């Protein structure tokens, strides 16, 4: 039923508004059938990027390709893409049936064919009872489904979704998240999905593209971007509470290389020597373990507050100038004012360049044996 | 062996105990007038805020309305020392038997229908075409369109009289005709309508532009992605969503066309020639202040008021239904 190729390629796509660069030379390859999430804080350019893919906004530079066709200058109505808007943009004067049927009406389908197709889509989305209602008579979740139905009705080459869940309450959002994921699996369609919600990104995406200030920070599977953040921005953006980031120095010790700061000494598990260099040390709250008082090294911290998350607890601590949070099963057994020693396994430590914020990886130098 | 039973845990509010809810003894025995005064002071502000508007409405609208109704049952020539003679419904009978009334209602209907191109069609076309003008150009453009509205009708009339002059007027010079626009039965009403249209079209463009700005641009964007052409978007999305604005303009046109034309008729044609520009308001004015027949004028006023009221309520109901489109 579906068209064969709906791969979307962006080549150095750029959009400037006056002196502001909203999207800065973004190149991205969205494979056929992929669920790509554009993730970033508000103002990072993700919605601008999506609107350029949809054709609603002309790029200042760069190209958009759908399949093998260059669609940069093709008007939106000839692009074979469907879009779900954050506001849903359901036509308020039309019934649910006419809203869903709108794309077919624009394509000149016959009334009977439209009715048949709309009924099919409505049945799939559990909207059959609501076909005669106006959008204002629907709940938030129902409106969301109608918007989805309007996108589904014409079997488009790809789906574009602009924060489609942000107007739903928390319980409904979790359910709809699962529905959209299931829909994607069933249709095998290409989806480009914009959100600022890391939970949506982590749970739904086959790949996540993280944007910051119009630039692409990292593209990868949810596991990749979470486990190996490419920059301090990515490290800080994903995870709740955010990754602990401590200004530190890498130095050689008797036990190999270690990251050091005031009250901090964590071995990196690398038995080598390297000149001292300033870094940003990152470690996720769930990767910190509370060690016995006798242990050597680690982070010596004072507990400042303990948050109860129900199943888990987060302890917010201070170590030297740095703030460090620890996350673990409840109860952690910590109270305000407690002195703790925190350790982490070397593979859970992330190092970033102190200036550029990019991830640092260890490259052993070729062994030079003295002559 | 230890025995026991499960006991329901009481909700928090109940557990806290109910003693605090009881009012303290003796609170009600305070002086009742003081409580009343306090209540009055607390309730007064909204009415005080409403008072100026209410007073003006009563003094300038409702009182004259009631007086007109009262006056319509008397014969009086507006001279203060001459007594008002009660005549019952004679004024209404006279009014309904003269051909003047039907003629003026017919003319007013023509005026209203002929005004619609200026207040609905033209403004929608202009507003849609100029939607893409942005920034400073848009402001300058709007000022240009709105300018005629700022010209006092009487001043505008003086200039138009000069432009439409049968021998030296620029209109005849440009058209190469020798029509006596304002003084021939065939053209006088159309001249009045065209001048009024020139006068109010800018205002209507502004209203439509405001209506267009109020439409969420997401609808047009969604329609574009859904595959609609520009014409389809205008017909299927923009115009239906603009319908409350259009209904408002229709209401304005129906209710106010006769008023808009009045100063022009009074300065340019005085209802003539041969009554060809005597609309309902001009008829009323003629009865009252030309023939000094206050009773007849009042009766005409009452009838027109009732008629316009009926039309207005009908249109208001339609526009209400349209307005519910908005989410």
Question: Which features characterize this protein?
Answer:
heterodimer; A: 371 residues; alpha+beta; Rossmann fold; 2 domains; 11-stranded antiparallel sheet; 6-stranded mixed sheet; 21 strands; B: 327 residues; mainly alpha; MetI-like fold; two-stranded antiparallel sheet; 2 strands; flat; transport (chain B); transmembrane (chain B)
Written account of the structure:
- The complex is a heterodimer of chains A (371) and B (327).
- By secondary structure, chain A is an alpha+beta fold.
- Chain A has 2 domains: 229 residues, Rossmann fold, CATH 3.40.50.300; 119 residues, Beta Barrel (OB fold (Dihydrolipoamide Acetyltransferase, E2P)).
- In chain A, the strands form 3 sheets. In chain A, strands 11, 12, 13, 14, 15, 16, 17, 18, 19, 20 and 21 form an 11-stranded antiparallel sheet that branches. In chain A, strands 6-7-8-3-9-10 form a 6-stranded mixed sheet, with helices on both faces. Chain A has a 4-stranded antiparallel sheet with strand order 2-1-4-5, with helices on one face.
- The mean pLDDT of chain A is 90.
- Chain B is mainly α and 327 residues long.
- Helices cover 71% and strands 1% of the residues of chain B.
- Chain B is flat.
- The interface between A and B is medium-sized, with 27 and 22 residues.
CATH topology value of chain B: MetI-like fold
Q: Radius of gyration of chain A in whole Å, from Cα?
A: 25 Å
Strand order of the largest sheet of chain B: 1-2
Question: And the CATH topology of the largest domain in chain A?
Answer: Rossmann fold
- The parts of chain B where pLDDT drops under 50 for at least 5 residues are 15-20
DSSP summary: helix tally of chain A = 8
Backbone shape of chain A:
elongated
The CATH H-level homologous superfamily of the largest domain in chain A: P-loop containing nucleotide triphosphate hydrolases
Q: How many individual domains of chain A?
A: 2
Strand content of chain A: 25-35%
Runs of chain A in which pLDDT lies below 50 for 5 or more consecutive residues are: none
Q: What string gives the helices and strands of chain B in order?
A: HHEEHHHHHHHHHH
Query: What's the rounded overall pLDDT mean of chain A?
Result: 90
What percent of the residues of chain B sit in helical stretches (DSSP H or I)? over 70%
Report the CATH architecture of the largest domain in chain A. 3-Layer(aba) Sandwich
- In CATH's first tier, which class of the largest domain in chain A applies? Alpha Beta
CATH homologous superfamily annotation of chain B: MetI-like
Which two chains touch over the largest interface?
A-B, 27 and 22 residues
Protein name (chain B): Multiple sugar transport system permease protein
Membrane topology (chain B): Multi-pass membrane protein
Keywords (chain B): Cell membrane, Membrane, Sugar transport, Transmembrane, Transmembrane helix, Transport
Organism (chain B): Thermocatellispora tengchongensis
